[in-house]
Amino acid sequence: MKIKCIPRGPLASNMYLAHLNNDWFVIDPSVDPDSLDEEIKSLTAVLITHGHYDHIKYIDKWHSKFPDALIFMSTDDASLAADPRTNCSYMDGAAKTFDFPYEDPKDAVRFGDLSIRVIKTPGHTMGSVCYLFSDEGKDYLFTGDTIFAGSIGRTDMAGGSFELMQKSIKVIRKLSPETCVFPGHGPDSTIGLEIRYNPFFAE
Fold first, then answer.
1. What is the SS3 assignment for the chain?
2. How distant, in Å, are the alpha carbons of 62, 129, 159 from that of 77?
3. What is the mean pLDDT of residues 112-135?
């Protein structure tokens, strides 16, 4: 599996391009597809970790460019994404509402023989989810703003809950220590490193 982080979204959010077998995936479409160096001729799916503006800014453009690509986002973040106040677009000097076709990922999304596990991780928003890819015995977790290297996402905005965040972290903590972690902001990590250094992972 090949993964490229593009940290050029609003508030320096990370968008990821993931290439596995013959499939391309975008995780959190925060960067203009026309600004990329990569030539992507087909896109299998857009995976959205949560509905904040800095993670979905260019979803409409990605959908226009690849209309056959499926879009996944938790329905628990639908009202948040549709409101310029709760989606935090005001923080980028905008007042953007989002209304795009998507499917609720539930517990997994499947494409032929490929199955991507979906872990519900409310805390940053009610609809926050993490996507777990597996390839050749290695696991890759895209966490959005649930966890960062050494920290966690804010829980004081609309739909946030520190109590739910703590429960979500307990779920993530059970993953293999070798699992690679790709957060919505900042550098990548592993579950083992977070258990060792992230104070919010303390039991």
1. CEEEEECCCHHHECEEEEEECCEEEEECCCCCHHHCCCCCCCCCEEECCCCCHHHHCCHHHHHHHCCCCEEECCHHHHHHHCCCCCCCHHHHCCCCCCCCCCECCCCEEEECCEEEEEEECCCCCCCCEEEEEEECCEEEEEEECCEECCEECCCCCCCCCHHHHHHHHHHHHCCCCCCEEEECECCCEEHHHHHHHCHHHCC
2. 19, 10, 8
3. 96
Residue type, 172: I
- In angstroms, the CA 149 to CA 185 distance is 9
Bridging pattern class, strands 114-120 and 45-47: unpaired
Question: 147 - beta bridge partners?
Answer: 152
Taking alpha carbons only, the member of 22, 14, 47 closest to residue 131 is 47
The tens digit of pLDDT for each residue in 26-51 reads: 999 999 999 998 889 899 999 999 99
C-alpha separations of 128 from 85, 89, 104 in Å? 18, 17, 12
CA distance 175 to 168: 12
Could you give the CA distance from residue 151 to residue 53 in angstroms, rounded to a whole number? 21
**Domains, in order of start, for the chain:** 2-201 (3.60.15.10)
